[in-house]
Amino acid sequence: MINNLPELLLRLAVCASAAIAVVLLVRRPLRQRIDAGLAYQAWLIVPLAMAAAALQPLFAAPIKALVLLPVLPALPAFGPAGAPGAASAAAQGWTGWLLPVWACGALATLALFCLSHRAFVRSLGALSVRGGVAYAAHAGAGPALLGLWRQQIVVPLDFDQRYSAEEQALIIAHEQVHARRADAAANTLLALIQCAFWFNPLVHLAAPRFRFDQELACDALVMRRHPSQRRTYAGAMLKTQAGVSLTPSVCHWQSCHPLKERIMHLQQTSSTPSRRLAGRLLVAALATVTVFGALAARAQGTPDYAVAMTLRMDGDPAPKDMRIRTPGEFSVRSSASSAEVDSSWDGAFTMTAVGSDQVYIRSKISRNGKLVSEPGILLRLGASGAMKIAGADGQGGMAVELTVTREGETAPGA
Question: Are residues 320 and 72 in contact, defined by beta-carbon separation less than 8 angstroms?
Answer without folding.
Answer: no
